[in-house]
Amino acid sequence: MDRKMPDHITRRAFLGTAAKVALGAAGLVGGSAGLFYYGAVKHRKVGSDALPPNIVRLGEVADLKLLQGVAKVAYEAEYIDAWYTKPVKGFVYVTVGAQGQLLIMSPACSHLGCDVVPASEAQQGGNKDMYFWCPCHGAGFDSEGGAVVVVDRGLDTYEPIISGGSVFFDVMKPIPGETIA
Fold this sequence. Notes:
181 residues; Rieske Iron-sulfur Protein; four-stranded antiparallel β-sheet; 29% strand; TAT_signal; transmembrane; oxidoreductase activity, acting on paired donors, with incorporation or reduction of molecular oxygen; Rieske 2Fe-2S domain-containing protein; 2Fe-2S
């Protein structure tokens, strides 16, 4: 501890020490940037055509356009919120509308969120427009998801995404059903 600092430092010694410090800092910055890049590349999904986990494939356009009536189609997807990933399993009802458009309907009742089911003749109670029935409170919906009895808003739908001859939809983006006056 009795060592004294030199009274003066030479220019050569100062530049040598400054160069070592600068190279060390550059090495640390470059090394950490390289590690971040390596991690990003390693965890990237394989293939540039990989679908986001919330996009679900329903089937081929040609097959779905030939539907007679309403089909129940099951799906599996993932809900990703920042760092949290949750698997989602469910189903949708798919049909071809009166204008020939493909309709993808959520099974959740617009009143309480219970899953609707196809209505039996007894549940229809003479109302032939009623196709879906909610077992929670008796709400009715037609075959295109429109509100018929008890509720004033139809079933939520999903926009069909057609790509490469297949039909997809985004599980996280339901379109609210039409409200009747």
